[in-house]
TrEMBL record, chains A, B:
Protein name: L-ascorbate oxidase
Top enzyme category: oxidoreductase
GO CC, any one term: plasmodesma
Organism: Arabis alpina
GO molecular function (one): L-ascorbate oxidase activity
Compartment(s) where it occurs, according to its Swiss-Prot or TrEMBL record: Secreted
Highest taxon in the source lineage: Eukaryota
Function statement: Ascorbate oxidase involved in a redox system involving ascorbic acid (AsA). The oxidation of AsA represses responses to high salinity and oxidative stress conditions such as vegetative growth and seed production reductions. Negative regulator of defense responses toward incompatible Turnip mosaic virus (TuMV strain UK1) by preventing jasmonic acid (JA)- dependent accumulation of ascorbic acid (AsA, AS) and dehydroascobic acid (DHA).
Cross-referenced Pfam families: Cu-oxidase (PF00394), Cu-oxidase_2 (PF07731), Cu-oxidase_3 (PF07732)
């Protein structure tokens, strides 16, 4: 239990630091606006008229206070601060139905939390599929004592974009039969992509039109203007709804130094894979005698791509921005070369000297089988045969006030039946809807094995990047086929596993992670693919229920469903 | 004050009747669904999977209990019972922000009200532009002692339909510069229209394709199957978002007998105009020796039309449904023949012997000038220089609990400046947003003069059908130009003015109406054109504030904004 003690120490350190910390306070208004994210007009969810939303620049220990006013006509809204642990403020995590009620149109809700540790993070909508409507932005938390050395930095927020509205997408996915939304029309870098033209068309024979941009075009790429012989930190985050991405910079190597806000043992690659929900920092050393511009390319991996690469320029200051690169954009590695992907994933290991190793033993183990299923012929995703239906009353409030009818009190299974054949479509395609959660006492070590399987039809197993709220976890290992309980644990990396908040489970494989229940609250753990989550692919962890019962939670977070009723009736009791 | 007494008597009679009345109780689920309203796929707001929503068939005095569950992903919802007075139950009126909070996704709200008097009514969404998304249905209240004689009846719910989503429409209207949504793509009769074909194409040379329908086509017209030599009551309601309609039945006269749930002195016409928010009953006498089918046509008036007629068949039982009529559909009268429209409006007078005349004098008078304006270059509609911005906290709750910061306490002006030239664009195009309301004591007689004017640009004055919640009013007269206070009152019809809940104000003209403040509550009074209301064209009447303060209002109606906070804090006080 040495690690648990260490974690508690860290919490104390943060608390001390924050006594002298800054307060970052902003007023945000969320509303739809017409925008041209990919040189075609669409409708985005903007913050204060900006798309993507404003970047938050904080220092570890700072207090962030964001007053979010919902200026939408009829829709609720929330903002999730992806990568922030919300220690002591689980109600500020921004997961609708889990930690708070959606903010009603015309109302303002104040998020007030400490950014507990440094890292490259982002924020995004977490209600319906509002993230996919463009409700996202960067959240950079700097370290007061940064150990990385670099001369400048850039943020690259990567997303995917559809021309179909999210309302239509949500309905399509919820229809019987389900209508798949298809691959994105465009990839966006900092909210900018090109659908009807290519910046690199001059390299291709026929087909695409060469882009020409007018000043202030909302789809014109932001070039990365660099000086020679310097080191730049690229802070890269993926808030895609669906796509797994690969990023490369032509003629330059990338040194991976940070993943999900944690330092990793540096390694150098020609390109990185990035799954939805992940962030990376890479260091890029510029050439000493540059004479031209270079392409930065972002392409699709992990699914058969049907979306053009997103491009922008690495622009050396002595070269005009308008000079076309003389070499074509990097070719994105083959989408289904999973061995290549796994090789990259397995390179990511904890940096030495920063983090203690994980606890050697776990106290509890969940083996979560993800399956694609049917409920009454509606297509769903299920975990251990339960497709999550998030209740109208946020769990955090139901638990605090002991409202036992707000959700299914029976927990979903801790594992799945031994005879399930993950290599085949489910023998019984039908599953069940549920709102049950997993309950953990404080201070224990939990292992979660994500187990992938074949989808409903055909011989396909999809990629799922799983994101845990309120925590980092150690990624103990990846494996092929079905997890062998009692055997595969022996291969866990307990020496230098990376700390992350998002991890992928590969087709027909498993991924093992470990975390310590040191953060009282209710934490969503779900596939970060927006349509998969919409179809039920998530679970919920309640941690330290007795602590939640004593916790101060603003009434405004619980003004819906049964908690609203409970709080209103309080006056009559 | 004789009339006031009569009204109070009527309330008592209803109360007595309801002691023996039936209860109509239904569970409704509201959700989006793909549908083919006009032979082209779109997305509609359905109730229990039906579009339009289910018809409610009640008898005057019945109690109607509808449990509405919001199955939308992120949007709130309410239902307004158009034409029902909600005596004693103003919280059940279903006007979001006025009488209740929108129902949150996943939650259920119970409307529980008495249908106080017989009439042809309908219900519809009253949040954002959800009515335009197809959230509507018929609400028929029969009289236990019907005096009209007829052999059968049909409901015709008339609406207009756009291919652009309401979310996109709302944004377009709220954009700077405003983007007008244009004329509807289709007109629908009971939710059915034809966009890509015409049933009567065989009458026209070239152009349109003749429709052929497959069984169960959602856009196939419902024919009105009739027997010879009988009298049928057509109950017609218009829930259009924009269009003024004209309905005619080829080869048949229509005897108008009811308007907005009130009997009118019968008169016979070849066609009727119907404005959004209005209902009519007409009696149609079938031919004695029929040998063919006849077209029922619905076309656009009052705005330059760009939408094909909606058609369905009057089908005599001895004639196959598939026989095409031998005469073409009736031609809709010229859209801008306002003299014809006014002639029709002025024919509508109260039936003798049913209703007392209005009180001879009024105690208060509002002259409401409607103007199209700009606020910070956003296009708005304003009344007496205030563009209504409905607050996040419902007025009904703010008033009950005395929450004075929930809305502007200053009432908007009771009239407009004398020198305003209604024949020209506003000299100062700018106006102000506001949430102030008009307060009336109980038991007084109020006159409202709706004053039309020129729009922002050009020489145009638009039609506005105004609908009052919670009341019928007497239509005392229509006039041209600017209302002359002290003069035009002398021309008011105090003998047999019709009782209505919706009335039109013609271009460059005025309309006078009178009502008695006999219904404690907060009542929306607004232009029933959905985009106009969205742009601020409405006012709010609070009636009997001291009675509202003592009224029982379910907490569930007030679970948003400052009333939620008030009700939650009650427990701490």
């Amino acid at each position: 239990m040495g690690t648990v003690v260490w974690w508690l120490v860290m919490v104390v350190v943060v608390a001390v630091h924050s006594a002298s910390a800054a307060v970052i306070e902003e007023k945000w208004e969320v509303e739809y606006t017409f925008w041209w994210p990919d040189c075609k007009e669409g409708i985005v969810m903007a913050i204060n008229g900006q798309f993507p939303g404003p970047t938050i620049n904080a220092v570890a220990g700072d207090r962030v206070i964001i007053h979010v006013t919902n200026k939408l006509s009829t829709e609720g809204v929330v903002i999730h601060w992806h990568g922030i642990h919300q220690i002591g403020t689980p109600w500020a995590d921004g997961a609708a139905g889990v930690t708070q009620c959606a903010i009603n149109p015309g109302e303002t809700f104040t998020y007030n939390f400490t950014v507990d540790k440094a890292g490259t993070h982002f924020y995004h909508g977490h209600y319906g599929m509002q993230r996919s409507a463009g409700l996202y932005g960067m959240l950079i938390v700097r370290s007061p004592k940064e150990t990385l050395r670099y001369d400048g930095e850039f943020n690259l927020l990567l997303t995917d974009w559809w021309h179909q509205s999210i309302h239509s997408q949500e309905l399509a996915l919820s229809s019987r039969p389900m209508r798949w939304i298809g691959e994105p029309q465009s990839l966006l870098i900092n909210g900018r992509g090109q659908h009807n033209c290519s910046q690199a068309a001059y390299f291709t024979k026929g087909g695409m039109t060469q882009c020409t941009f007018k000043q202030n075009d909302q789809c014109a790429p932001q070039t990365l203007r660099v000086q020679p012989n310097k080191v730049y930190r690229l802070r890269i985050a993926s808030s895609t709804a669906l796509a797994t991405l690969n990023l490369a910079v032509e003629g330059h190597k990338l040194e991976v130094v940070e993943a999900d806000g944690n330092y990793v043992a540096p390694f150098t690659v020609s390109d990185i894979d990035i799954y939805s929900g992940e962030t990376y920092s890479v260091l890029l050393k510029t050439h000493s005698t540059p004479s031209k511009n270079h392409w930065i390319s972002v392409g699709v991996r992990g699914r058969k791509p049907n979306t053009p690469q997103a491009l922008t320029l690495l622009n050396y200051i002595n070269t005009p921005n308008s000079n076309n690169p003389t070499k074509p954009p990097p070719v994105t590695p083959r989408w289904d070369d999973y061995d290549r992907s796994k090789t990259f994933s397995k390179k990511i290991l904890a940096a030495k000297g920063y983090y203690p190793p994980p606890p050697e033993k776990s106290h509890d183990q969940l083996i979560l089988l993800n399956t694609q299923n049917l409920i009454n012929n509606y297509t769903k995703w299920a975990i251990n045969n339960v497709s999550l239906s998030v209740p109208a009353t946020p769990y955090l409030g139901s638990i605090k006030y002991g409202l036992k009818s707000a959700y299914d009190l029976k927990s979903p299974g801790k594992t799945f039946t031994n005879d399930y054949d993950i290599m085949k479509p489910p023998a019984n395609p039908n599953t069940n809807k549920g709102s049950g959660i997993y309950n953990f006492p404080l201070g224990i070590v939990v292992d979660v094995i994500l187990q992938n399987a074949n989808v409903l039809k055909g011989r396909i197993s999809e990629i799922h990047p799983w994101h845990l709220h309120g925590h980092d976890f150690w990624v103990l290992g990846y494996g092929e086929g079905k997890f062998r309980r009692g055997i595969d644990e022996k291969r866990f990396n307990l020496k230098n596993p990376p700390l992350r908040n998002t991890v992928v489970v590969y087709p027909y494989g498993w991924t093992a992670l470990r975390f310590v229940t040191d953060n009282p609250g209710v934490w969503f753990f779900h596939c970060h693919i927006e349509p998969h989550l919409h179809m039920g692919m998530g679970v919920v962890f309640a941690e330290g229920v007795n602590r939640i019962e004593k916790m101060d939670i603003p009434d405004e977070a619980l003004g819906c469903g049964l908690t609203r009723k409970w709080l209103m009736d309080r006056g009559r009791r």
